[in-house]
Amino acid sequence: MMPFNEAVARTEYREALALAELTWAQRKRVQWINEMLDVYGFINRKHIMRKFDVSEPQASKDFTMFLTIFPHRATYDKNTKQYKRDIPK
C-alpha cells in the first residue's frame, strides 16, 4: 500500500474540479489528449482537428485548457511542432 501523499491528493482534487467545469465535449477532448500522450508520447493540433472535426483555433484552445489543468504533463517541441509527454524525473 502506498503512503498517503497530501500534495498529490491536492493536485488530483484540483484537476478533477477543473475537468468538472468543462463542457462534455471539452472534457472528452482534454481526456483524449491525455490518453494519446500516454499511448504515443506526443500529439499535435492536427490530431485533434481530425479526430473531433474542430478548427485549428479550437484545437489550440484545447491544448491551452489541457496545459492549464495538467501543467507538467506535456511541453511543446518547436522543432517537431508537437506536444510531447513530460517524463517525471
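Second entry:
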Amino acid sequence: MVHILLSIIKLGVTSISCDHHKYGLAPKGSSIVMFKNKTLREFAFYSFSDWGGNLYGTTSLQGSRNGVGIAGAWFAMLRLGRKK
C-alpha cells in the first residue's frame, strides 16, 4: 500500500477522493477527500460571516448536518476492511 501511495505522489497527484456510499457499502452521502499536505487542505475550509449568527466555519461541505453518514462509513470500513 505504501508503494502505491508513493507512486501516486510522484505523479503529481495532490488529492484523492473516495465515495464510501458507492463502493464501501456505507450510507448515501458519505465521502472523503485526502490531501497531499496540510497546506492544500487549508483550501477546503469554508467560512461565512455575512449572517446574523456571527462567524460560521466548517471543515466539511456537510456543515452542521448530523454525522450519521460518516459514522456509517467508519463502521463499514471497520467491518468490511482488510482482514489480517
